[in-house]
Amino acid sequence: MKELWFTRIFNHAFGPAAVALRHWLHLPAANPPIPAHLAMEILVAAVLAVLGTAIGLTLSLDSPRFWQHLFEWLWGGLGQHAEEIIGHGSERFLRFLFTLSVFIFLGNLLGLLPGFMSPTASASVPLGLAIIVFIYYHAHGIRKQGVPRYLKSFAGPMPLLAPLMVPVEVISHFARMLSLTARLYANMLAGDYVIITMTALFPLAGSVFMGLHVFEALLQAYIFVLLAIVYLAGAVAEEH
Fold first, then answer.
1. Distance between CA atoms of 29 and 35, rounded to whole angstroms?
2. Are 73 and 223 in contact (CB under 8 A)?
């Protein structure tokens, strides 16, 4: 795969530091030192940081701007979903869920820009996000239930079936990571290839395919975060 222009510039600026870090951690060398998907991730994070700071500095109750309206609408919608699924105390998780949803959506959209790619079209990025969700909901389940009670929930309501239920539950929880990863990765990778192929074949219809890609980007971000909410609800529920 041809190196992206942004990745080339990024490696020129930060490649030596990445090489030094790999050497210090005794990791094998890579060429380029910073892969494209990691550079795209950092770009998305930087855009979110700048956008969040700009919105925070211009917050207004009297004359809110477009971006403030948009983010308040997204926050409210996400909060309503979390309240319906998780119930009381769902506001504790909103910052994490909101950041996750916006990061995935912007990452999905990045592939529409010439010379860029969607970081979520690389398997390692959805896998990393899925691992974060996995650790996050288990940590809150343990925080809410306590270690003994949370682990007991894996055994099911019938002690006689515990030897069967425990491995089934453990496998199912790890399968959630695979499901989150495969769904996001496969859809965004296919979406990127469809955009490239169909735009090359039908240049005049490029805007139509890009519109479909925007819808797919939004849909996949929504599904990923919705599943994260469901997993959180199961982890912090009073009764499993």
1. 12
2. no
* DSSP label of 29: P
Q: Whose structure tokens read 């479909």? A: 212
Going by C-beta distance under 8 Å and a sequence separation of 6 or more, which residues neighbour residue 179? Answer: 227
Tell if the pTM clears 0.90, that is, is over it.
no
| pLDDT at residue 138 tops 90 | yes
Residue 237: both structure tokens together: 């529920």
Mean pLDDT of 96-108: 94
240 pLDDT tier (thresholds 50, 70, 90): very low
| CA terminus-to-terminus distance, the chain | 47
Residues in the chain: 240
CA–CA distance, 20 with 211 (Å, rounded to integer): 42
Rounded CA gap, 230 and 17, in Å? 40
d(C-alpha 74, C-alpha 112), whole Å:
22
Q: How wide is the angle at C-alpha 106 spanned by C-alphas 77 and 96, nearest 5°? A: 50
Q: Which two tokens stand for residue 132?
A: 């974060």
Say if CB 176 and CB 169 are below 8 A apart: no
Structure confidence by residue, pLDDT tens digits, 195-234: 777 777 777 766 777 788 888 899 999 999 999 999 999 8
Please name the amino acid found at residue 69. Answer: H
Find out whether 120 and 187 touch, Cβ atoms under 8 Å: no
Residue found under tokens 């979390």:
82
Q: Look up residue 165 and give its two tokens.
A: 């239920």
A 10 A CB-CB count for 144 gives 16
